[in-house]
Specification:
Length: 188
């Protein structure tokens, strides 16, 4: 039953059930935590295979997204294809500007930070907490403009980063969202 729920291997399921004294829900959580940890360890491995997924919504919005993995075998799996399709739909629906926060230009970040500092000061907040509030606003900004930090459109309790790590955990390979381009009819 645990294997069906998680897609994990037989030995991993057996070990998780042993560690959690047979509690199915705790075993699922343990497997998820272990999978995310493994995904983070794989992050430095080269991902040179993958797919370019196209998605067109209502003949008005078109998206191309490049998602890489380590082997052609994984690139052909249903999990990976489903992830690529979900990422293309996410890009069409949520309109991110960047894949991850490291891509946000320093000038745009400085401009946003300056605006947030002024907003917080105008609200009369104590100077001691201004930086903390500004950091919170910047994190919200990142979750709006960076694909990997956006809430997943099909399950808003999960970020795109968490979704990618879950698929990486299931496939056993490093998965990287490399780039995307979004076209909107009539826009330049």
């Amino acid at each position: 039953q645990l294997r069906d729920m998680t897609g994990a291997g037989m030995m991993e399921c057996k070990k998780a059930l042993a560690e959690t004294a047979g509690d199915l829900n705790k075993a699922v959580d343990a497997l998820r935590k272990a999978g995310i940890a493994k995904a983070e360890k794989r992050a430095d491995r080269a991902a040179s295979q993958g797919r370019i997924e196209a998605y067109v919504h209502d003949s008005r919005i078109g998206v191309l997204v490049e998602v890489n993995c380590e082997t052609d075998f994984v690139a052909r799996t249903d999990d990976f294809k489903g992830l690529c399709k979900d990422l293309a739909m996410q890009t069409a629906a949520a309109s991110p500007d960047y894949v991850q926060r490291e891509e946000v230009p320093a000038e745009r970040l400085a401009r946003e930070r300056a605006i947030y500092v002024e907003q917080v000061k105008n609200e009369g907040k104590p100077a001691a907490i201004v930086d903390k509030i500004v950091e919170g606003k910047l994190n919200k900004f990142y979750s709006e403009v960076c694909l990997m930090e956006q809430p997943f459109i099909k399950d808003d309790k999960k970020s795109i980063d968490q979704l990618v790590k879950a698929i990486s955990s299931r496939t056993g390979e490093n998965i990287v969202v490399r780039r995307f381009v979004r076209f909107r009819l009539g826009a330049e």
